[in-house]
Description:
Blueprint: H1 2-18, H2 34-48, E1 54-58, H3 69-75, E2 86-87, H4 93-100, H5 110-118, H6 121-128, E3 132-134, E4 142-144, H7 157-160, E5 161-165, E6 171-176, H8 181-199, H9 203-232
Antiparallel strand pairs: 1-2, 3-4, 5-6
Amino acid sequence: MKKLLITLLCVPLLALASGPELHLDKAPDKAGDKAALQNGAKLFVNYCLNCHSASYMRYNRLQDIGLTDQQIKDNLLFTAEKVGEPMRIAMQRDDAKIWFGAAPPDLTVIARARASEFGSGADWLYTYLRTFYRDPARPSGWNNKVFENVGMPHVLWELQGEQVMGEDHKLTLEKTGKLKPEEYDAAVADLVAYLQYMGEPVGEFRKKLGVIVLIALAALFVLTYALKREYWKDIH
């Protein structure tokens, strides 16, 4: 009975181990790069916000990455009237289900959601946005190497160009886009950095505060230890 129980517990792990390994490319770390975050915000508004909302993110939060209210209004405020409004879209979920088969998800915390599944949300998004390829069998004409049979079309194809999947399962750029491959990778890295930022806008501040707290605790430990030695020095 004990051996049977151990076998049943191990079956899911064996099934997981036997599945194909998902290779993710390492995303550049641009969390503290305000210029990259600003470019990422521009890409998000122009290419993602048509179908995907970010309803837990307000436009005025972009002040944290170095933009003024006027810059936000002039360049990024396409789906709202005031900078204090959330990044919503006009498309209704019922219409989206009819057009795409499923409603596009809200992207406010997409990086954190993918991190819970794959360990690194940034790496998954960076790989995903760079591995679309032409597939005539799909309704949209596009497929993705890390998200097989994806319903989303390749919205950045004008920038990247068109890739095809070879018999060796490797992607080849068949038609060039507006950007060179290295430029496209850099643009995707900026977009991914912005998606990460939306999931936790105070993330960088939290990390810096954590370092300060640890230093303060270390100093307090030294003082506490010195006080303890002084207090107990005459007690044997």
